[in-house]
Amino acid sequence: MSKLYIVPTPIGNLEDMTFRAIRILKEVDLILAEDTRTSGKLLKHFEIGTHMHSHHMHNEHKTIENVISRLKAGENIALISDAGTPAISDPGFLLTRACIENGIAVECLPGATAFVPALVNSGLPNDKFVFEGFLPEKKGRQTRYLELAEETRTMILYVSPHKLVKTLAEFITYFGEDRTICVCRELSKLHEENVRGTAREVLTHFEKTAPRGEIVVVIAGKTVVKEAKKSKFQKDEE
């Protein structure tokens, strides 16, 4: 039977590519890639010659029908994103759902994703947490902040570097300046950095040092706000 493979790819360090992921990408009939130029570099590095098709947020509604047809015809197909696990703030959900609705097997390989190491690196409680991905740009943003202000679990957000300072200022408005947070930047890469402290301390740091690269922000839940005053500003980098 044919199968759709969801294959994670490294978020920065190519050594995080698994042996199984390389094998699957070599064996399938087709690879669906978010950006074929970006993925082409990865495939070349691991000597993978499988043909690629573009599958991203702007065309996935149009391409799903053709992909399902190819799977029904007996082909095995792999889905990858530019970095990390597909469907986590990347295309993948719609195709996965379509496969399930059509009785096509789906198998997701374990592998790299940015929010897990960020959560562990933060030093904040990780027995219960909520992943928010990217917040709404405009409509619904304030409403979401008001809801998150009451969240008791540790929260994880993805933030673009050019929006980080503004977002940190918003944290102070909705969560308070003493809320403990950790900004994780360039995870697994040469210039990985973890900046921990209160919202005010971390904002001050990035007002002086312009943020760059991929960023994950981890925020303490409401129940541990009192602990924030005991914390000390800390910056770890490799």
UniProtKB/TrEMBL annotation:
Annotated ranges, domain Tetrapyrrole methylase: 3-202
Keywords recorded for this protein, A-Z: Cytoplasm, Methyltransferase, rRNA processing, S-adenosyl-L-methionine, Transferase
Catalytic activity: cytidine(1402) in 16S rRNA + S-adenosyl-L-methionine = 2'-O-methylcytidine(1402) in 16S rRNA + S-adenosyl-L-homocysteine + H(+)
CDD domains named in the record: RsmI
Enzyme class: transferase
Annotated compartments: Cytoplasm
Membrane-spanning intervals of the chain: none
Enzyme Commission code: 2.1.1.198
Principal place of residence: cytoplasm
Gene Ontology MF terms in the entry: rRNA (cytosine-2'-O-)-methyltransferase activity
Top-level division of the source organism's lineage: Bacteria
GO CC list: cytoplasm
Family named by the database record: Belongs to the methyltransferase superfamily. RsmI family.
PANTHER family tied to this protein: RIBOSOMAL RNA SMALL SUBUNIT METHYLTRANSFERASE I
Stated role: Catalyzes the 2'-O-methylation of the ribose of cytidine 1402 (C1402) in 16S rRNA.
Protein name, UniProt field: Ribosomal RNA small subunit methyltransferase I
Organism: Flavobacterium aquariorum
